[in-house]
Design goal:
The protein has 731 residues and is an alpha/beta fold. Helix content is 47%, strand content 20%.
Length: 731
């Protein structure tokens, strides 16, 4: 892992720099291309935030202090059947409703209705104006226009051409303290008619505007209308409810009285949508809702002298009531992250609720640099998580894991009122994953391909995959370690190969070597090289194999089995039967890449390797098939059938070594103890006992060559002394 730290940090830094450049628009693209990228990123951030809001953002119901009085189609039908009046209703109805709500104790009555055209009943406008003035609790909604002022029109919002414009602007303008950020700018106010504007003292902008994708997520608390500050309907309502005299902007927040809410970097209030509460809010609405027709019935009874019912007083006392309409042909709905048919009055209610509770969403970040930080951090972390473990699984899962971790953090933050960026960090995870995979492909991928190329012919596919997954286990530069070496050769190969033509000889060798190679690889061995009919192999490198000696012994026995089976096939084809000799030795060896700079092999060298080669040749002296050193016998463990043959002094070694024949796996054959006893008799000089022992083995195994060779050795001496050490003068 330490070797990967530097590249991981460098890749992470490059990923962070790339995602910052991408999000900041520092791309070498034409202006149209940069705009397209910015649009994609902005809409991606908005859409990802919407997913969060829908998933975990609707965590509480709307405040009971805000009540919606919406005239829907049922209300219109009810009023029509009772009074014969169609829509629009006489404004006297709204006047009666305003007086009744005031008497019922409502704190504020907000009309999300535009009274910009004179009523068909002239006295209605005057009646509504008088009711508004008498109530002192009404906030009227108004609209704006971006069109230039028409000197011939009677709708100017800032000159003396109409009384309506003058009174409306006086009622709409608010005091501002501090820097409001970047409020929207409009050319003029579209006020209520003069009879109403003259009598009102509180007007707020009831317009709702969406983001670039037209979804409503934010609300501007303040708009400059012909340069004058005009509050939104929601802000104006809260000002009246709290008795606040001015809008105070400080430290990225809006303060109204003792309430303070965060604003985004554009100075907008980020709406915190509420969870619908069906038991108290019909139709999936987030706030308590009442039918306007029911309220009008009570209001008309009150106008005729009936007192306000105690139930109505409990329902409206101290409450903010937002009056609006939503019926076919008179729809007042907007598209929001949580609904495609979100009521316009409910949007104002949501803003009011956030202002009253002080829990409107706090966007992060406010600064451009801070907006890039999460994406850069996630990109950096993804690259580290992809590269440091050195695992393909980790590399594949790092990006999704980092993205999910940030999404979980964003979800937790949203529940606590903080809106973290999501799309940028997810993009950062993608960039970090892509960059790290490119690095892995160019470096470790190349290394894995090199390992595969180097070892695929020498070891089993399982070993290749293990080395590719964990290249740190491979030390190609050479190392000394305890290993077991395997040398094999075919007896009399030179002689019988002369009886074959070249094509037949190649066919014979390929089949023979393939069978033995499979046996060695299946036992976890590494093929060092082929030298004609000879095979050199080893165990315990490049991967650790604590049971390497046993593996080598089992491979040797298996090679003899497949050689015998192959001999039957050779006899059927008229070829000589192959007889295989194997030498095994366990000891310290040096393993690694050896050769020239242009060509090298992964091979073994050392005295222990040479002994394995000598033992292969020593089979000729004893007529055996598999000879193993004492070190291999001791390391092989239980369950392997060895018989001691002699102490052997091989060419190049002064000290004799004990050698054993590997005869089988499983329980020790019954004749082995007798053979062992005969060898011990030779060592102590009891030649008669030794002869009896060898003859006893031959009686059970007439073809036992080691017994024959020992008897011949005994026969060649004077009967008084036989050197128990065999000396071989040839390899």
């Amino acid at each position: 892992m330490g070797m990967r730290l530097g590249p991981a940090v460098a890749t992470g830094a490059a990923s962070a720099a790339l995602v910052i450049a991408l999000l900041a628009g520092w791309l070498p693209l034409p202006a149209r291309g940069r705009d397209a990228v910015r649009t994609f990123l902005r809409r991606g951030e908005l859409a990802s935030g919407d997913v969060l809001v829908r998933t975990v953002g609707l965590d509480r119901a709307g405040d009971d202090r805000v009540v919606l009085a919406i005239a829907n189609q049922a209300d219109l039908d009810s009023i029509s059947s009772q009074t014969g009046e169609g829509w629009p209703w006489p404004r006297e109805y709204w006047a009666v409703l305003a007086r009744w709500l005031a008497d019922a104790g409502a704190s504020v009555v907000a009309f999300d209705l535009f009274f910009t055209e004179p009523s068909r009943y002239p006295e209605d406008d005057r009646a509504l104006g008088e009711a508004i003035a008498a109530s002192g609790r009404v906030v009227l909604g108004a609209g704006t226009s971006s069109l230039p002022v028409d000197p011939t029109a009677r709708t100017s919002a800032h000159d003396d051409e109409t009384e309506a414009a003058r009174f409306a602007m006086r009622a709409a303008r608010v005091e501002v303290d501090g820097e409001p950020g970047s409020p929207p700018r409009r050319r003029r106010l579209v006020p209520p008619v003069e009879a109403i504007s003259r009598r009102t003292d509180a007007i707020g902008l009831a317009e709702v505007s969406g983001d670039a994708d037209e979804l409503v997520r934010r609300m501007a608390p303040l708009t400059l209308v012909d340069g004058e500050p005009v509050a939104s309907l929601a802000v104006r309502v809260v000002m009246r409810h709290l008795g606040a005299k001015a809008l105070v902007f400080e430290d990225g927040s809006l303060r109204l009285g003792d309430r303070s809410v965060p604003l985004d970097r554009d100075g907008r209030l980020v709406l915190r949508f509420r969870r619908p509460d069906p038991p108290r809010t019909p139709g999936g609405i987030s706030f308590p809702s009442v039918h306007v027709a029911d309220l009008l019935a009570a209001a008309f009874r009150h106008a005729e002298g009936a007192p306000v019912a105690a139930e109505d007083r409990r329902r409206f006392e101290g409450r903010i009531v937002i009056v609006g309409v939503n019926a076919p042909g008179k729809e007042d709905v907007e598209v929001t992250p949580v609904s495609g048919t979100f009521l316009g009055p409910e949007i104002h209610a949501t803003a009011i609720d956030g202002l009253l509770r002080g829990d409107a969403l706090a966007p992060w970040p406010r600064g451009e640099a801070a907006a890039l930080l999460p994406a850069a951090l996630v990109a950096f972390a993804t690259a580290l998580l992809s590269i440091l473990p050195g695992s393909p699984v980790a590399a594949a899962l790092a990006g999704p894991a980092a993205a999910l971790a940030w999404a979980a953090l964003a979800a937790i933050a949203l529940r606590s009122g903080r809106l973290l960026p999501l799309f940028g960090p997810v993009l950062g995870a993608s960039v970090g994953l892509a960059a790290s995979n490119v690095w892995l492909y160019l470096t470790e991928g190349r290394q894995k391909r090199e390992i595969g190329r180097m070892f695929s012919q020498y070891v089993s596919p399982e070993v290749v995959r293990e080395l590719q997954a964990h290249p740190e286990k491979l030390r190609l530069g050479g190392e000394r370690r305890e290993m077991t070496a395997f040398f094999s050769d075919l007896e009399g190969f030179t002689t019988f190969s002369e009886s074959m033509d070249a094509a037949t000889l190649v066919e014979f060798l390929n089949e023979y070597l393939s069978l033995c190679t499979d046996a060695i690889l299946d036992a976890g061995g590494v093929i060092d090289k082929y030298e004609g009919d000879a095979i050199i192999a080893f165990w315990n490198a490049p991967l650790d194999q604590p049971d390497h000696a046993r593996r080598a012994c089992e491979a040797a026995l298996r090679c003899q089995e497949v050689c015998a089976s192959f001999g039957e096939e050779c006899a059927r084809r008229g070829w000589p039967r192959p007889r295989m000799r194997i030498g095994l030795n366990t000891g310290p060896m040096v393993v690694g890449n050896m050769g020239s700079k242009r060509h090298f092999d992964y091979t073994i060298i050392g005295d222990a390797v040479n002994l394995a080669s000598r033992l292969e040749g020593a089979n000729k002296a004893f007529g055996t098939r598999i000879l193993a050193s004492e070190a291999t016998r001791a390391a092989g463990g239980d369950g392997l059938g060895f018989r001691p043959l002699a102490r052997l002094r091989v060419k190049g070694r002064a000290e004799p070594v004990a050698v054993h024949e590997l005869v089988a796996t499983g329980p020790e054959p019954t004749w082995v103890p007798r053979f062992r006893g005969a060898i011990e008799a030779v060592e102590r000089g009891d030649l008669a006992a030794a002869r009896n022992g060898f003859e006893s083995v031959l009686a059970e195994r007439p073809d036992d060559e080691p017994s024959r060779r020992w008897l011949a050795r005994l026969d060649g001496h004077d009967g008084r002394h036989v050197d128990p050490v065999w000396t071989l003068d040839e390899k």
